[in-house]
Amino acid sequence: MSQKVTYEKLEERIKERTAELAKANEKLRLEIIERKLAEEKIRSAHAELNQIFDAIPGGICLIDKNFNVFKANKWISTLCGTPVDETTDKKCYETFSSNICNTPECVLTKILGGEEYITMEVEKKCINGKKIPCILSATPYYTHDGELVGIIENLTDITTRKNYENELKDSLRELRKSLRGTIRAMALTVEARDPYTSGHQQRVADLARAIAKEMGFSRDKTTGIRMAGALHDIGKIAIPVEILSKPSQLNGMEFELIKEHPQVGYDILKPIKFPWPVAQIIFQHHERMDGSGYPQGLSGEEILIEARILGVADVVEAMASHRPYRPALGIDKALEEISINRGKLYDVEAVNACLKVFKENGFKFKI
Q1: Structure confidence at residue 226 (pLDDT)
Q2: What is the pLDDT of residues 156-180, one digit of tens each?
Q3: Four-point Cα dihedral 91, 92, 96, 98, nearest 10
Q4: Widest CA span of the chain, in angstroms?
Q5: With a threshold of 0.70, does the pTM exceed it?
Q6: CATH assignment, 55-157
Q7: CA 263 – CA 296 distance, rounded (Å)
Q8: Where do the domains of the chain lie?
């Protein structure tokens, strides 16, 4: 009887244990299923990320601290002209070098030195010899626990933009050439009616440019002043030739007619869209600092600085050159005039620059 009870207990224990194992197996089976589902989700997520990584319209690569490319998208492969697997596991400067490689400007060097974000324009040279202008952006690449692994480098091909820029530069160059030709033709039109002052506008333009340059004006602004100088007397096209070439002093009425030429010049040029305020400069070139000029009676800062410079250049050239009603007074007399009236009639800085241009820089009018 005792042995039978023992067997029954043993069987009962076996059944209990079998049930426990069955439960454990079921739990394990469910865990395996969950794990497989999780792995599938991870694989799917990786596939999606890789698809996105490759679909980005630009090059992305991950570079470690030792300059090894350990991941790159298809754009990088296309850029380099090599398969993806040949693009990775190589030094970045072997795969796609640039003008900043092995210099302090290297983005990896900078980020390892503590910088957080870098962007610059570079020219990438690939294994296939192709050179591509790019915008390069780089940021640190960290592990999940914050350890700096290397950098994420992004490259944007700007070849098309560069081509457009070059075309635009060529067009601008041609436009400026045409503009200079047009201005020269307009200036010659005035000189054809007033041969006694032939070359006056060009000489004034040259001196105004030299003064502006001495005053530290930008190249573009200096060009505008020179253009205005080359046309500053275009309004005289409306003045009778008899007055322009009169061999004696003008009477009051004749001088009033002459004083209209800044207004006429302004009216002629204001419809033209110059890159500079050429019409206004010409309109104001006979204004004076104390308000005694014409045609608007402007004074001080009301007068454009370009017009103040042109006014000084105009006076100096006119006094230094021959006129039908008088012989040339000479450069010394002209410089004396602007020195005496510095701050009263003429802008102080423009006068100082003009004096320096002649006395220190050796400026001379071209005949």
Answers
A1: 93
A2: 888 888 888 888 888 888 877 877 7
A3: -120
A4: 158
A5: no
A6: 3.30.450.20
A7: 9
A8: 55-157, 171-359
